[in-house]
Amino acid sequence: MKRLFLAFFIIFLGVSPIIKAQIVDEAPMDGLYAEDETTFAKPVPYPFIRKADVMWSKRIWREIDFRQKFNQKFYFPPDPQANWKSFITIVLDALKEGKITAYDISSTDELLVPVTYNEIIARQTDSSYQIMNRPYPPYEEFDTVIYTEFDPTKVMRLRIKEDWYFDSERSQMLVRIQALCPVMIKERNGEEVTEPLFWISYPESREVFANALVFNEFNSAARLTYDELFWKRLFDSYIYKEQNVFDRRISQYATGVDALLEANRVKNEMFTFEESLWQY
Fold first, then answer.
1. CA separation for the pair 75, 92 (Å, rounded)
2. Do 63 and 53 meet the contact criterion of CB atoms below 8 Å apart?
3. 6: pLDDT strictly greater than 60
4. Which domain holds residue 241?
5. What would the mean pLDDT of 159-181 be, rounded to a whole number?
6. 253, β-bridge pairs
7. Which residues pair with 180 in a beta bridge?
8. pLDDT value of residue 15
9. CB contact at 8 A, 103 and 116
């Protein structure tokens, strides 16, 4: 009996490398209903703006931190699933397919120089020289080069360039997002370093975002897209720059608590302006 079992075990070991996992062509339905992947949603069109109706405007730069609890929907899932992708995965896939255009980072945050998907990936491939010791005698030192490839999971912030304006025709204070910039967070010499990747035009990207789902933690049946997320302002952010004659950020003239107070001042200034237009 033991010999029979041993022979069967040897035969199994010989056959096992041939057995490979296969993905079925038609998977069984895993949900309440079949997902329709052929539909193509259109973003809500912008309202028409006449130059004569814009009586006041101001450009604001914001930053969204994906590590904040309310903003975690931008970061997860790191690995794409059937219906869910992280924000950076959606953007990179759209760049690879040529659906949107990326623009090089400039000091003025203008969309001037286009960059390709391959250029973006190549720029994030770091190489560093290190001195290491051999693990065997005489344990001599040797130089080596360590390559670090682009890691999308390190994109943990998003910068937003937007225009706030008061429309006298509608008697409303409105906002229109103009551009987005993913930001990586790296660690160098024990310190956190931010590295912006590229700018993309938000109006150009709206069709991509209108067909990209965001995880709705309150109700999975209520479909929420990234375009709706930006349109409804379902994110938490802080102001890091306002349009000014010196073209400088808040961090360049205020730090710590003073920088937070300055950001709140800019926010309250716009709120006060809108309130002062009305008489009760």
1. 14
2. no
3. no
4. 46-124+154-276
5. 94
6. none
7. 160, 200
8. 45
9. no
